[in-house]
Amino acid sequence: MTGHRLHTILFALVVGTVAEPNSNLKARINLSAFKFVSEHAQHVIDLEVPKIVWPNVTKDFTAGYGTGKVSVQDLNITEFKSPK
User: Fold this and answer.
1) What are the residue ranges spanned by the domains of the chain?
2) How many whole angstroms separate alpha carbon 26 and alpha carbon 38?
3) Superkingdom, according to UniProt (predicted)?
């Protein structure tokens, strides 16, 4: 049963990272899944997060008193450590 849970959680993480880029990300994880990941899968997450290829993003904005453009390119996470 534990292997199946880990597989499901990792599948959800991978789908979330390879999905079409969107300006919004919504995720819901129940307490038992969070505890499971915290206890058993931290090392996997610590290894996999730096491997994520983040897309380049350019967004125009009009908010407040002005307008502008935000551009993020070549974003990478070189080191990641899960909270304990």
Assistant:
1) 2-72
2) 20
3) Eukaryota
